[in-house]
Design goal:
By secondary structure, this protein is an all-alpha fold. About 70% of the residues lie in helices and about 0% in strands. The termini are far apart.
Length: about 80
């Protein structure tokens, strides 16, 4: 079957079937074009935990509030 034959056939379908085909094609293309992860999904939390770890102590709430206030003042003033 040629491409144009397929297109002509699909044009004759009801709109709901055309939309279902479009959704299926989108799903197929999304999975085909998605970047392949090098890590298995079950290892991802271990990697994130290592990324979040720091040698410095966490800043106090007041320090975060002051930094955010300063950011807003720099941005809008």
């Amino acid at each position: 079957m040629r491409y144009q034959d397929v297109v002509d056939e699909i044009k004759q379908w009801p709109l709901d079937q055309q939309l279902l085909l479009l959704e299926e094609m989108t799903r197929i293309l999304r999975t085909e074009l998605a970047p392949k992860s090098e890590l298995p999904p079950q290892l991802a939390p271990a990697v994130w935990r290592g990324m979040l770890k720091t040698a410095a102590p966490a800043p106090a709430d007041q320090d975060l509030e002051d930094a955010y206030t300063q950011y807003l003042m720099d941005k809008y003033l």
